[in-house]
Amino acid sequence: MDTPELSYNTSMERTVTYSPAYTLVPTYECFNRCTYCNFRRDPGADEWMSLATARDVLERLQAEEVIEILILSGEVHPHSPRRAAWFQHIYHLCELALELGFLPHTNVGPLSYAEMEKLREVNVSMGLMVEQVTPKLLETVHAHAPSKRPDLRLQQLDFAGELKIPFTTGLLLGLGETTQDWADSLSAIAQAHHKWHHIQEVILQPHQPGHSQAETRPACQGPTLLQAIHLARKILPADITLQIPPNLVLQDLALLDCLRAGARDLGGIGPIDEVNPHYDHRHRNALIELLQTQGWTLRRRLPVYEKYDAWLPNKLKTAVKKWRG
Ligand code: SF4
User: Fold this and answer.
1) Which amino acid residue places its CA nearest to atom 1 of ligand 1?
2) pLDDT beyond 50 at 5
3) Which DSSP letter does residue 128 get?
4) Per-residue pLDDT tens digits for 237-285
5) Does 251 reside within a domain?
6) Residue 2 falls within a domain, yes or no?
C-alpha cells in the first residue's frame, strides 16, 4: 500500500489532538448481540442511570479537566414501548451536562430523523460508527444485530448532514472484513462528506479482544492497522481528521507509527473506555512524554471543531464559546 501524499493537515503536522472526556452510560442494555461486544446487558437486566446519579457524577467532574460528556448507550429497539422513555432520558442527560457547563456528544445507535433533530438541540456534535458497509457481516458478527444494517447506518450520515450536525463516524477493523470492504466503507463516508461537509473525524477502531465477548477473534494491529490508516488517508477528504483510540494500540512504538501514517487525533480520553473496558487509557502525561520523544505536541480540543460552531443552535454556541481560547 502506497503512503499517501502529506497534503493534509500540514499546518498542524506535529500536533495531535484529544478531547478531555467522561462517558455517561444511560444503560448497558442493548437489543443487539454483536459477537465481539464487551458492553451489553440483556434488555431488562440493567438499571438505567438515574438523573440524580448523573448529577452527582457530573458535579464531581466540575473540579476536573473534563469538557466533553460522551453519552454512550446500549440500544432500546425502535418499536419497543420503552423507546420513548429511553430517548427522553438521553435528552435529559444532555441537558444536565449542558447545565453543568460541559459539552455533550451523543452516540446511542441509529436514530429516527425526528430523534436526531431533537438531540441536535442539546449536542455540540454526535456520532455513530458506520463500522463496515459490507452486508456480509450480517451473516457473521452481526447476525443478531439488526441495527448494524449498513444502509441504516449510512442513512444516519445523511440525516446528520441534512440537519447540519457535526459528526464523527468510523470503521471497526478486524471483524472478518477484507481490504476492499475498508475501501468501500471509507468511500461511502467520503461520499457523504462531499455532499454535506459534516464529518469531523473518522475513527479507525482496531479490534482488541475483551474478556466478555461471545466470540474470540484476534486483535487487529501492526501492519494491518497501518495499512488501514494509509488507505483511509488516501480515500478520505483532507479536512477529515483520522482518529485512533490510543488504548487499543498497545505498544508505544506502534502508536507513533499510527501518527506517522496519518492519524492526528486520539479521541475522547477519560477514566474508562466503556466499549473496551479491558484496555485502560495511558495517562495524559505519559502520552505527552511519548509524543514529545518524536517532536509531537498533544493539544486538547473540544468535541466540536471550530469550523462548525456556526452550525450550532444559539444556546450551544454560547456554551462552546466559554471553552474557546
Ligand atoms: S456492540 Fe453496541 S450495538 Fe452491538 S451489542 Fe454491543 S452495545 Fe449493542
Assistant:
1) 37
2) no
3) -
4) 999 999 999 999 999 999 999 999 999 999 999 889 999 999 999 999 9
5) yes
6) no
Q: 142 C-alpha to center of ligand 1: Å? A: 9
Residue type, 178: T
Residue 49 in any domain: the answer is yes
| Spatial separation of the C-alpha atoms in residues 268 and 283, rounded to whole Å | 13
Q: What is the pLDDT of residues 21-80, one digit of tens each?
A: 999 999 999 999 999 999 999 998 999 999 999 999 999 999 999 999 999 999 999 999
Compute the distance from residue 246 Cα to the ligand 1 centre, in Å.
21
Model confidence at 100, in pLDDT bands (50, 70, 90)?
very high
Contact 88, 304 (CB under 8 A): no
Q: How far is CA 198 from CA 3, 202, 206, 237, in A?
A: 26, 11, 24, 11
Domain count, the chain: 1
**Domain holding 88: CATH number?**
3.20.20.70
Q: What is the pLDDT of residue 6?
A: 30
Compute the distance between CA of residue 132 and CA of residue 181 in angstroms, rounded to an integer: 7
Considering just the CA atoms, what is the radius of gyration of the chain in Å?
Answer: 18
Confidence of residue 325 (pLDDT cuts 50, 70, 90): confident
Distance 199 CA to ligand 1 centre (A): 22
The answer to whether residue 91 sits within a structural domain is yes
- Segments forming the whole domain that contains residue 234: 10-309
Mutate to test the pocket of ligand 1, among 23, 28, 29, 32 (most ligand atoms within 8 A of CB): 32
Buried residues in 46-72 as b, exposed as e (16+ CB within 10 A)? bebbeeeebeeebeebeeeebbbbbbb
